[in-house]
Amino acid sequence: MPLVVEKLNHIYMKGGPYETQALDDISFTINDGEFVGLIGHTGSGKSTLVQHLNGLLQPTSGRVLVDGVDLSDRNADRKQIRCKVGLVFQYAENQLFEETVAKDIAFGPRNLGLDAGEIDRRVREAMRQVSLDYDRISGKSVFELSGGQMRRVAIAGVLAMKPSVLVLDEPCAGLDPRGREEILNLIRQLHRESGVTIVMVSHSMDDVAQLAERVLVMHRGRLVMDGTPEEIFTRGAELREMGLDEPQVVQLCEQLRERGYEIPPQIYRMEDIREVLIRICKKGESHAQ
Q1: Nearest to 203 by CA among 263, 159, 243
Q2: Which domains does the chain possess?
Q3: pLDDT in tens, 234-269
């Protein structure tokens, strides 16, 4: 199910004294099964863009197509579209409201008019996908859970709708290091096991470098880069001009090159630099002998 954005523009308060163009002539296509990282400085238009992907916002001009359906079309079934494209907001746990974990996850499927058996199956499967024990916590209040568990409940509520595309807006925002690592592992596992298309908005270049297969870079409402992590993160000077940091691994590689070490240019992930550092250490040991 391709997701196509064509010449998308969005203007807030159009015609007023505070008119702001949040999106400026954006076009791209996301194909089935891709894992796309969306990065950009605060105010670059990332959150505005992702809210167009399932029709929460309507374009000022241009269009968004989901499986060939124009979301601006008055006849478009938006309920069906929002089943296909699931959006998990930043601090999504703030939107949890039901009495128990199971009821919160079941909220979306219940609104689809599904029978009780199907709803129960979806709740159990969604909880399994986010590594939550149904027997242990399904009957608990969400407010008894840790921050990381609450975030997983929120993601499970979207997964219970069986989306083909999962859009995650800053999924690790506000979490402690342990909770952040749990969510990142969960997202990696979801993509690997289910093949769901993922669009992940993040301020963390390291998270994007670890997970994404493709990176879109926003700057002042425009899409200014679109490529593989290797292609994007070797353009460090341009990223810094836009107020974006490179992944820490890329920064380390640059420091090592300045000290005379031969480091391949395409390294941007921790597992890659680990092998290089092992070789450097072994070489140093052999010289010492």
Answers
A1: 243
A2: 3-228 (3.40.50.300), 247-289 (no CATH)
A3: 888 899 899 887 777 777 777 777 777 777 766 767
